[in-house]
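for the writeup, i need someone to sanity check this before i put it in the appendix. the sequnce is what the collaborator sent (i think, or maybe the updated version? ugh). structure was predicted straight from it, no edits. if anything looks off just tell me and ill rerun, i have time this weekend
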Amino acid sequence: MNRNPVALQTEGPSRYYTLDEVYQRLRLWGFDAADANLNILLPKNRIFRRDIPEILVSGSGLKELFEPWRKASLESGILNAQAHAPYPSWLPLMGKTNAALIEVFKNMLRGCDHIGCRKLIVHPFYAGPSLRLVKPFEHRRNIEAFSKLIPTAKRYGVSICLENMFSRGFTKKLHPACCADPKEAAVYIDELNALAGEETFGFCFDTGHANICKTDVRSALVFLGRRVKALHIHDNDGVRDQHLVPHMGTADWDAFAAALKEIRYSGAISFETHKLWYVLQRDETDRQMRLLSELGRSFAEGIDA
């Protein structure tokens, strides 16, 4: 396996293919690994309705639930390099639901172990641009919640990766949210790792979210350095969260590539371009996905150049 396996999220291809077929196609398209969209087990609309399946809370029958991802990985030879947890991670004034979500995330960590995945990406809670004065509450809530996951993460050897987020204001405009500022992200990761007594937490740098938040990609990645354990690679117009293929939007890909090389990034080159599948016809998928995997290979090769 390459030091920087090239990966694609499983969500997009599932429009046309079964999970088994997705993993086989990843191999055909030239990918080494998958970003397993475990979030499909608990879609956000069910979280908002407070409709959380008991199996995800109790953990009873958990191995059977995650078995399809393990089986598909083993049969295809495609590594589960990282996985995405359900989101949102917290709801205001919903104590019972939030307690259940903590159990869900613990079981997601157990599920990652079952499918051979060592990195779980979890969205931090964010208060939104209209609630800037409650930043201290946002911080306390995130530290309290994530610290409850430490024993499970350490037991199963799965790292938890926080992600840089944006939020929508009353005008629908997108604004920087929790961990969009690399200094804030570093504080979270360092504080949580101090609580864990080891490197249990890392960072997933989302290029699309960074572009929306007008983040200086190179300086952010260099500042975060070894904390960066995972990537969500996609592009946009700087206004909307479009999840486009790199070079279809306005993100600075030269700066991104240079930063990966500078920090000697060692994780997966993972694309989160699922919205491409909204317009991609089935007979176009093989050609387009091969081009995407080749682009990923060029990013990976640039790190060692």
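The chain has a mean pLDDT of 95. The chain has one domain: 6-304.
thx in advance!!
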